[in-house]
Amino acid sequence: MKHIVITGGNGFLGKAICRLASLHTIPVISISRGGKPENVYGKDYQTTTWVSADIFQPGEWKKHLQGACAVIHCIGILEEKPDQGITYERMIFTAAKIAGITTKSMGIDKFVYISAGAGAPDTPAGYMASKTAAEAFLSSNELGLDLTILKPGMLYGLERPETIQENEYIRKLLPDPVLGPEIKPNRPLPVESVAKVALYAAINTLDIKKLFVDDIERLSSALNF
Q1: How confident is the model over 119-129, as pLDDT tens digits?
Q2: Which residues pair with 180 in a beta bridge?
Q3: 25: Cβ–Cβ under 8 A, 6 or more apart, which residues?
């Protein structure tokens, strides 16, 4: 079986995808600066190979694309640290651009990009602008990728207890006649649901190429995967 490459596979969503891949005995290679995360062991990740590499240096990791069937790109940041060179433009747009170009250069067409739905009112404009710019670049005919874009809102899961609490708070607001309609389209999703759809999209052809929260939730519930 061909493997899948996950850029940013040691993050919250990336690890969820790796766990699901292991459950289905799908080999994956995780590419991230930190390599193998702490407290990762046992059968939950038995099909994952952890590689430490800099996404901005394709020469360090593109060899791991040989023989792969798809790339799932999960790299991103929520907060900038400009003094450390960590900006939305670099870590979201430029990282996605490099991943897309390198993927295509290695003869791989299928690419799954984890973007974002419209953020909360306090979501920085630069964050959303960089996600949108990355989508546009990856979708370009010149690049020619077989692209699937996932646009979830906030993700929650047991690995990050604070997200469980935030989700519970947001769920209480959904019945509100004023706030509910604003919140519902980008309501939080379980990290496992997004992982399921991302992994499925990497090994199958979907009719919908851009999936929002409703699409992700519906497909995740329908998949026997």
Answers
A1: 666 788 899 99
A2: none
A3: 1, 47
